[in-house]
Specification:
alpha+beta; 3 helices; two-stranded antiparallel ribbon
């Protein structure tokens, strides 16, 4: 079994400037939620696929952000998703 590594860089977009501090304060909860779901997700995902689907990752991150921040999270900007084993950025 080969080990895969995926680097994800994203930014949670606040609905307003007053929500930026709220979002910053909750980043640990968001990271915990994302990692607790994505680690087991990728273990199954890569049994059937070779590369990561960036849109699927964005959708998952938006879901986590909405769960943690509610309507204060307007969107998640996916800056980079990089499959470190393939050396390619997904389409």
């Amino acid at each position: 079994m080969s080990k895969k590594k995926v680097l994800i860089i994203a930014r949670v977009m606040a609905t307003g400037s007053e929500d930026e501090k709220f979002i910053q304060a909750g980043l640990k909860r968001l990271q915990d939620k994302a990692l607790s779901d994505l680690v087991p997700f990728f273990q199954v995902y890569y049994t059937k696929r070779d590369m990561v689907d960036a849109q699927l990752i964005k959708d998952k991150l938006v879901k986590y952000a909405k769960e943690v921040y509610g309507d204060r999270a307007k969107d998640v900007l996916l800056i980079n998703v990089f499959d470190l084993n393939s050396g390619q950025t997904p389409n």
